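hi!! sorry for the late reply, been swamped w classes. u asked for the two structures so here they r. pasted raw, havent cleaned anything up. first the sequence of the first protein and right below it the tokens
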Amino acid sequence: MKSGRFDPKRDPHLRHPSHRERIEQAATALKQQLESRSRHLAERAAKTEAERAANAARPKRSTAAYRAALAAIPLSRSGEPARLSISPTYQRLVDISVRCIEDRSREPVLCWPEFDASPAAVAAFLTLADNASAEPIKRDTLDARAAPLGLRALIFPYASSVHRPLRKLYVDKDALGRLHTQHQVRAMRQGEDRALADYHKALARAKTLTGKALDGNTYDEFQHPCLDEMLPYGPCTGGDGRKPLLWHVKSKTDLLKISRSGDADNPENAKFYLFGLRASDNIAASLKSMPKQLDIVFLDLARTGRNRLGRDWESRVKSFLSELDRNVGAVAILALTDDPWTFDKLRFETLRSATSGKSRSKPAPSDIIFAQASDLVVSNNSAAVDYTPVIKQDAIGFSGDVETLLRRIRANARAASDLGDGVATELLYRLSGILRRCASLPGSRRDFSAYVEMEAGSWAAADLLASYRAGSVIAEIKANIGSWAQHHHAELTDLCASVELVWANTAQLTPMAPLLRDVVKRFERASSRTAILFRNDMLSDFASFVLRRDEEIGANIDARIEKNMLLFLDKESFDDLATLRTTERNQIKTLICVAPTRSQILALLARPWLPDSLIILADSDTLASAARDGSRLLAYPELSAIHKRVSAFVEKAGKAVHREGGGVDPIQGALDEDVEFPASSVVNLAGNVRPNQPTIRLRFSGDQVVIARPGTKLILLDHSRAVPIFTECEAKDVDVGERVCVIGDAFLEMARPMLNITVRAAEEIRDYHRMVLDRFSRLQGASDHDRLVSLVTAMGLPTVTVQRASYWIDLHDQLCVPLHDVVPHAPRERPTFMAFMAALGISEAIAARFWIWAVIAQRTSRLRAALSFHDAYRTILIDTYAAQSGNPERAREIRRLKAAAQDFVAVVQEKTEHRGERDRA
């Protein structure tokens, strides 16, 4: 209530203003308000004009100049004379980054389907281009360069692995030294930036590199500086993990003796610096204490980056952006992702300007890079990609009780999230993943458990099967006392009971098992070859194991497998098929893709080569999610090459999916997460251990475990040399703290495309074929049929018939085909193989050696082939130079493998000794 004449708090002696006085007071107040508003508008206009003038006066980064500068910089790989240049994909990323920096815009980029972009590489290329595009000038008749603009960038979420691709590429020392010598002519003048002067001085000395290290020996990797040494980098706060300029060559050559101020390595003053903000860092504190300004921020939101942030990656990115605006201000942001759903989430929500309102009609500016490789550099001749037509597509899904229960679990997970119960949310999503994983097995869970234990032993089996057991997660959910459990206790109890019932059913039969059997049965007598693609080779081998034991079709399946008419593949094996000659590749008319993830379906549709017919088998959730993503991809003209494939899949998947309720908003709808089939963290190099036989278990950083016999030779990294080398050491002599190269699943996935070890296997198999023909010709009998009868009789196995054994000795054609087309004609079971060898009079030791290479050549499960792969790669890594000399055509791949293997070295944290009966307990 306003004060008035009858207000008891009003002083009765105070004269009440007259009507005229009140009018004058109002006019004065209005005048002051208008003057204040005018001043505010004038100040804002002046500020806008100042910013416009500053932007106009600010040096501009030219996309064309950067492109020309990068094209002129020679790049190479260690020991290879070929000159390489930046790849078109990374050139586009550089162009987009320059545009973002100039406009201070926020843009997502979809790098798809096989382009694993490195933000550290983009920063390195920007640094090279900035220095090389500086305008030529004169200083006292000497050629010089104008000052570069500099680059201060940040990567979030950061991990040191983003630098791996850069360490295998080298910048020509002569071109680099010549460029920075010109910069140094300018930088030595008084008044120049001290940090820039130090930067140019360090890089100008790169021209003095000769490859000679401090130990007096010459190494290829010290001939030129690597791409990772072009700008210093480190964390936002603290000194741990910082890398100075030329950090690699400086530590091993006489560049260590350069007299420098070190200003170029100081994040406080450096003009070129790359900051790394890890997912585990305190974002607010790190950004607040970070010195100076930033030119660009890279958001690494590919699958690995999102996994670093966790399930709530989106909210964490929004929190990061909020802190960035508060502590740093307006800055360019480039978000790199490999997922179409994430790409649209960034366009329409996360990176969208707050001034855009609620309408979805104006998403954030964005780009798509459609690429089939992640190469940073390429040779000058790049072949165009042709996409084969897919004549027929089909998508078959299963739902039933599993889908109903999964939908119910997700609904409860969202309810738990809304209540702020993060523990319950995580447990429910884990439970959903276990159910989907079990339902997608190509055989029953009971058969899978028996198979894994038979192939890998109890220790590795326990590690693998933990991801398929629901009991421990259900127990944690029941024991949870969070807000969701208190609000929905009855639902919790009933849900757990339903999960236990459905999970128990998968022990007898999974939904995928009969579906796969019925589809494969349609091709058991087909005249063309059929390929079946699985997520990994473990599932591929398990499916083969199950189908060959089927009472009705097992014999036919076994015969087709032995004749290579039915191929069980993982991704690496399918990559091999794509490299075959067109005539042989065209013999494969049908591809059956079993239980792929949402992203794998779309990536498969984007592969250049596919057979005429494609069948996808998956749960309804996966098909629905992939169909939604496919619908979004159809809107992008950059992907026109695969529009026909994708539209056919969307149509088939839409008919295969049966859902209750209405449609799902493509942006707001809950994302059905891809469920992976995890690989084992245990590498079993001991094989089948006899009772009371000693074994050694080594536990490494990262929780990897290697099981070996005392005499098993392991690969150690010796850091005492100028250039680290690999040596071998028996497992019993390895001590805690030593560095061992672990040849596990991650190593094999890296090495497979880099050095195809199956070529070596093919050489061994050809020798095997010659030996079999020679021994078979010595058997008694007037004809091949008579000798086959003698052979089958000597083997003494009821499952081996003359017709079946005839395939094993039908080898004359295999001696004439090119090496990459060699196919092993041999029994696929070890007992049968050993009996076959014994009947031919071949010793057990020789037979065992050929069996090892047959395992590799046929790409059977890594569970069984662990020792085979380990021995093959150990020979190459230990004696690299002999391997190059013996295989000069593959010397380049061998050098790259040795360099990459250093990224898979782990430190021994624990060493224990066990006995065989305990391993099998």
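now the second protein. again sequence first, tokens right under
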Amino acid sequence: MTISDQKAFDSILSMAQNMLRLASERSKSPITPEMIEKELRKLSIIMEEDFALVDPDALSEELIRRSSRTVGANAILFSRDDHIPWLDAERKKNWNYWRRYSEYMEPRIPWVALDALDVATDEILGQLEDPEREGAWDRRGLVVGHVQSGKTGNYTGLICKAADAGYKIIIVLAGLHNNLRAQTQIRLDEGFLGFATVSDADELPSVGVGKIDNDVSVRPNAATNRSDRGDFNTAVASKMNVSPEQRPWLFVVKKNKTVLERLLHWIRNRAANHTDPITGRKLVTNLPLIIIDDESDHGSVDTGENVVDDDGKPDLEHDPKTINRLIRSVLHHFSRKAYVGYTATPFANIFIHDKGETQEHGPDLFPAAFITNLAAPSNYVGPGRVFGSASSTPQSLPLVRPLADEDFESWMPPKHKNGYRPRWQGEDKVPDTLAEAVRSFVYACAVRKLRGQGNSHSSMLVHVTRFTAVQAVVVNQVAEYLRDLKGRYTRGIDLTDLRSQMQTEYELNFAPGMERIRDALVQEETLLTPEWSQIEEVLPEILSDIRIREINGTAKDALDYSENEATGLKVIAIGGDKLARGLTLEGLCTSYFLRTAKMYDTLMQMGRWFGYRDGYLDVCRLYTSGEMIEWFGHIADAAEELRQEFDNMVAAGATPKEFGLRVKSHSTLTITSRAKMRNARAMQLTYAGDLLQTIVFSVGQDEIRRNYHAADRFLRGLQGALPLNKQHYVHGSQQWHGHLWREVPALNVVSFLREYRTHPASFRVMSPLIADFIEEMNDGGELTDWTVALVGKDGGPDDLPHSLGGYPVNMLQRTAVGGHSDRYSIKTLISPRDQAIDLTESEWNAALELSRKTWRNDVDRNEGKTPPEEPRGPQIRRILGEGVPSQGIANRRNRGLLTLYLLDPSKADQRFSEPDQDPFVAWAISFPSSTSGRTVSNSRYVGNSVLWGAINEWVD
């Protein structure tokens, strides 16, 4: 598609979206394909010349796709302290920057997404103060999005509205590296400034919103530019004077000590208009400030962790303590100010380090004013959908291609030094799996071309080492492999074996994989799977179009997407951490990803593979190690648990401070802190309101037998077993198989937990620590009486009966994940309904009502497309902990729920298929929430779990 064709396509799309929206509102019915055809026929008469340039089928398909999108509901926790509500329709009249941006985004995103953007940015701006409010004020908030889900689009919209409202100084803190800062500047040139901030041009060309409205009198001012060296510098600072009546000023700066010190110097010496008579601090009182902190958990948080450069030396330019201090100082020099952090990790360390305030730097960046959780639109593909989360397990899709250690370790060992020379089978070449990944990218480009997406950007990411010298060798190896493919296909030499290999691979693996992914994740698109003969026809052209770029601090390469807008850039980007954090790879199809840093950072970087993949999700592939996949599951689970906790607190009207306190001792932090550092620090933990389940088991016969006997003894000591169907309330036609005990003393449960041995790799579920917690809660009169259930699989032809404590029960079957020889790991143990065991009918209904109230229709949280029909775990635990006094439902904090299961050992390993083999005993505990604030320390147990500490030792 030429640039003029694209313009015609966009303008028709924009008009059609608005007409369809009106038609849908008039008929009070959803948009249908017939409605789309009707509106396009009208437009073909009005916009005849534009229609001559476009493919009407492509237009129709794009409109069908967009009209099927949905966006979930956002959730917000806020504090009313020193806040005056101000944002209403009257205040938004004649807002020019937002109008331009909204029109600019119209052809780019579905209208439901544009509406959602309007609502979300209003909610965030409304939580800040009115910039026209007199006197001193300070609001600090946090916006939590999903990884790669469009945070930049959100804060660009917020900046436009803030400028419309009257904020005069807008500072965007954009990443740690020049290329990321320049990329953010380009996006803001297009979405807010309206002109390209070219460093030495006499005339600044209009771009983006500037082409919609080129009125020079409303152009904002830019203090930084889009070149790699365009950050705030002394030459700019010496010429800049800002007055309140001027149009707003935009600064896009790196999180870098030198740059922030320059900015602070300029504020003190050129912008300040007042000196505080008591402290002598220079203040800006006439220019309201808003700071947008992108990736706010990276480099802004005072974690006290040391940051090192590529050579392992302390990196003083990016020391979080220093950066945190400087950001706070900038805020401290303004009397009217707002700070909004953006992050994709709900356990942004911001919650953990609420350091309070210092005289010199002012309060910490803790988001005391508000925290907003953005929901993802229905076409977003995130970790939850790919890896599943605690609440749901997706089928293992060919999107992810797990690599065994032998697939890469001899080529790129986990521990290697700068200067290492990777070799595969003794030769200077890529390993077979990386060659396969490159071919997978070639197929992806070919399929996209045949679908008419040939002019869109397509990228592949190779991230296997953090050392630039080693990256250079990988670049040469990949380039050599690509040259070989290209040479054979363009000259037809030695082609027979390669052609047969690629045809087999495409027809038996790649194409069927595309269909499986579409069935599972892409319901509303009709995408074609080309025949091999069609693929082969375009291969020579694809192979000659692919470019290789080395992206790191030393290489001169850059990702020049904007210069290749008309033809689309097809690029294999090879790099390390520079590539990793925040730099957007357009049209990212294929990733080959090995661990290169501390586990947590690597996971967050790998997260860039997620996002929006309209029209090509089925050709995307992620090649990574089993270890990374397992950890991604842990982190996705932890993120989902914190989101559910957040939803509960929103329903209860809590403040950000209260959420911060809850998160501080949340047991999921054992996961994130383990991923972040080698030396697991002791923490004060609470399990109140948590669900704990055993998902990792020892495979030694002695351990299996020991745990089986512990559970057997425990059940033999209980009195008064009932059939599991005899619960207080059984919903509908539910059938249960198993046994139930009520009012079991806490002492029995604690004794069982002290005897049962959890696996050392299960660092969140440590049975002796959980026993300590129950005893601690008993001191306050909570968790004194337990409901215990032995839960069996529903009856059927594949029944595997066994008994425990003399009670017969069917074993459950759970597939092993992760391929470990030293342990049996499963994805999830319990069914969602198990947490509702033995609730009363009124508790069951109250928990269902709360589950519906907190349902967000967020696709990445696997919540389903309709509100829940049964209560969800977090809401059950909330109702039991707090009761519903208005409905006469008392809390039951004295009651815990312990469910026991037997797992079929043959699923763990074929070695365990002997008839007299003991099954694995698994259990789950559901704790009611509590307001007691009681915690226990894990200091006695941290030492054991350092077995797992080796996970980070080679890089900390």
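hope this helps!! also noticed smth abt the second:
The longest strand covers residues 895-903.
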